Request: fold
Amino acid sequence: MWGAFAYFWSLINDAPVNADSILGRSGYLLMEVVLNLLSFVCFCLAAREAMKGSDLSRKFLGVAFWTLLAFLWSSADDIPFVAFWLDPLRRELWYPFDIAVHAISLVFFYLAVRAPSKSALEQASSGH
Reply:
């Protein structure tokens, strides 16, 4: 559920919805920060849900790493360094670009959510 909310906030942030412009030009930056913060919080809550019942100390760094990559890819067009280098591609092909970065983000998010359950399955099969 939290993962769906994370992608919801990430997807409505930019075109075609442009929820970041709902307050007009003066509130653009505020809404940009709020929507990305909501997305990040939901990613973290989804990772926390995935880690319930697993050995936190062993899997925390891996889950945190994959979750951070998922967030960064889902908001790639909002990161100034990435936006600068990919601006021509983003301007010409914004829709395929948006689909591509969110698809890559979904792969990383899958790895983040799957990591704790994968280790639990391995432990169960090894008899520990």
Q: What stands out?
A: The chain has five helices and no strands. The radius of gyration is 17 Å. The helical segments are 2-12, 28-51, 56-74, 80-92, 94-126.
